[in-house]
Amino acid sequence: MQNWIVLGATSGMARPFLRRLAIDGARLMLAGRDMEELETLAKDCKLRGAAEVEVIAFNIRDTAAFPALIDKLAATQGVLNLACFVGTMPEQSAIDADPMLIDEVVTDNFTGPAKFLSLLAPVMEARGEGVIVGVGSVAGDRGRVGNYVYGAAKAGFATYLSGLRNRLGRKGVHVMTVKPGPVETRMTEGMKLPFMAKPEQVAEDIMGGIERRANVLYTARIWYFIMMVIRAIPEPIFKKMSI
Ligand SMILES: NC(=O)c1ccc[n+]([C@@H]2O[C@H](COP(=O)([O-])OP(=O)(O)OC[C@H]3O[C@@H](n4cnc5c(N)ncnc54)[C@H](OP(=O)(O)O)[C@@H]3O)[C@@H](O)[C@H]2O)c1
């Protein structure tokens, strides 16, 4: 039996991913802040074929609650998998006006998920199987004027996931880093961004990446090539650009 705990289950990107897992008959644990929304999602997943669905109150900033959830995960029967969609992206101008917001951005996008995964790592190591999916962003590939604090947090998370992959890969646990370009969700509401993907397409890409054990997955695929070019732009030129 495949167990999936999904952190940030209410995320626009997580929803179609959950639907896919439900159709596959997985046992789901939906973790998030909005219990009412989680209950609605749980009903939908059950109707679509999930073997079992449980909702779990979860806040990435509440580290004191992590150990109890880790114990619960350690007790699950079958293969344990995790996907983390948690993230926040305040306007860069709001962060520039109040730099104290940096702590929250770094907690939500990097250190919160990293703390949870570091507590889970020994459990996964002992099991010797399973998949961890961590959602970062193309924003982590280069510091841009428009969202460099969010980008820095995602870059930190990507580097963390790379090390975790190195650590857990040799124990039979696969860690996949997902780097979405712009996706049509609540996070990008009202924004006009290039090559916007649908969350359904992202979910399909993630399922495919899990199947073929991708290490780093750019979604939509075009972002792999776009970021290759953006990373290659020399700093003296890049610093004058507003992309
Ligand atoms: N949309 C994009 O263009 C895009 C591009 C690249 C990467 N990403 C990343 O993709 C992931 C999913 O984002 P999305 O686009 O699906 O946006 P979203 O719908 O806003 O999802 C963000 C998720 O994070 C959860 N969350 C925020 N703060 C939390 C906290 N303190 N504790 C627990 N959960 C918390 C939200 O829960 P609530 O429902 O309770 O608010 C929500 O489930 C994020 O990591 C985001 O940074 C998004």
UniProtKB/TrEMBL annotation:
UniProt entry keywords in alphabetical sequence: Oxidoreductase
Glycoprotein among keywords: no
Record Pfam families: adh_short
SUPFAM superfamilies the record matches: NAD(P)-binding Rossmann-fold domains (SSF51735)
GO cellular component terms, A-Z: membrane
InterPro entries: NAD(P)-bd_dom_sf, SDR_fam
GO molecular function, one term: oxidoreductase activity
Keyword Repeat: no
UniProt signal peptide: none
Gene3D superfamilies: NAD(P)-binding Rossmann-like Domain
NCBIfam families named in the record: PRK07102.1
Family (UniProt): Belongs to the short-chain dehydrogenases/reductases (SDR) family.
Name listed for the protein in its UniProt record: Short-chain dehydrogenase
